[in-house]
Amino acid sequence: MERARFIQSATQLRPLALVPELSLYQASDIYAVWELTEQATGQAGLAPPFWGVAWPGGQALARFLLDHPDLVAGRSVLDVGSGSGLVALAAERAGAAVSAVEPDDLAAAAMELNAAANGLPVPLRLTDIAAAGRTDVVVAGDVWYEKALAALVTGYLTAVTKAGSLVLAGDIGRRYFPRRDFEPLACYQLPTTIALEGRESISATVWRPAWQSQP
Fold this sequence. Notes:
With 215 residues, this protein is an alpha/beta fold. The chain has helices spanning 3-10, 30-41, 56-67, 86-93, 105-117, 147-162, 194-197, and strands at 12-15, 23-26, 76-80, 97-101, 124-126, 137-141, 166-171, 182-191, 201-209. The N and C termini lie far apart (44 Å).
């Protein structure tokens, strides 16, 4: 399967509701794209195409970075679980040098297309969080939807915060998000869909670790 061509045929390039400065290749129906992906690859049981949706936590985090470029401008940024590259691209637009942790090859192809569509460099891709070195800022959006992944990311963010990195998270407060360990910095209301979130509007928050100094 030619990944870029598949993504362009299965999605539409559209600006984001909360971050109109950026446009992404987005799926109108993630479940339909999921089925098309399995058909195109000849594989069943694939993970959902998370790269095809501008998830609310990522949009909130991207909005926050663009509104506060001083937090990342001229600094190194690591985007954990980058998916479509939304937060990584917002950090680049704000003036950062960005690396993105994303093991999924199709997501990496979507990130490349999205970078090109916005006239931004493709973030340096890492396939394993263990390969990440010390960075000034670590960002993570919408990665607390599954227990094991949530534990991995939370442990990593705890470690890098203690090592001196500024940590910013974007999430709606999903089941595995450790809310008691984080403090809110900003909250945004944005449209979503019944199919994805069970409602037409949702509140997404940018968080910092409770023990971290105020950015």
